[in-house]
Design brief:
single chain, mainly beta, Lipocalin, eight-stranded antiparallel barrel, 2 helices, 56% strand
């Protein structure tokens, strides 16, 4: 009888463990339908930076003979993109601001970029260029919906804690 009593708690533990392993993670929100019609009028309605993810390679601070990959979701994210036409010029104001943890145990890096300048869009390559002297930003439009924009760009992030600059792919989610 004592052996059966011991087996019952073990069996119950295994059932709970199996049940917890089968718990499904919540599904991500489905993307809204793709927009129709010209891109530029939709773009000029203004967009808020909602989320930023990043990825890249850097010198490994723990083993200088190798490189380390970093990727993650930024936090303390803010920013905006606004567009207007004035005197036959396509003007833009942009700001992107976030904090990123590149590798565990390292100082977080703060990225901020903002500017006012002109912009242009190439519908064939789905590329937006922002010219704000001395910077030029280039974003590829990966998804275009009436309420959601997904863009990516290759940017340089300064990392003063290591006195290096890091080529980084930055994906941004913009919402109205």
């Amino acid at each position: 009888m004592g052996k059966r009593f011991l087996g019952l708690p073990i069996l119950a533990s295994l059932v709970l463990l199996a049940f917890s392993a089968c718990v499904k993670e919540p599904k991500p929100e489905p993307l809204p339908p793709l927009a129709t019609g010209p891109f530029e009028p939709r773009l000029k309605q203004g967009w808020q930076v909602h989320a930023v993810s990043y990825q890249g390679n850097m010198p490994n601070p723990f083993d200088t003979t190798t490189t380390a990959q970093f990727q993650g979701e930024a936090y303390d994210v803010s920013g905006e993109f606004t567009f207007e036409d004035r005197n036959d010029s396509a003007l833009a104001h942009y700001s992107i601001d976030f904090t990123a943890d590149l590798l565990a145990g390292m100082v977080p890096v703060h990225y901020m970029n903002f500017g006012d300048g002109i912009w242009t869009y190439d519908s064939i390559s789905k590329t937006i260029w922002f010219y704000a002297y001395p910077d030029t930003l280039e974003f590829i439009v990966d998804y275009d919906a009436d309420t959601l924009q997904l863009w990516h760009s290759n940017v340089i992030i300064d990392y003063p804690a290591m006195n290096i600059t890091l080529p980084t792919r930055m994906d941004i989610e913009l919402r109205k």
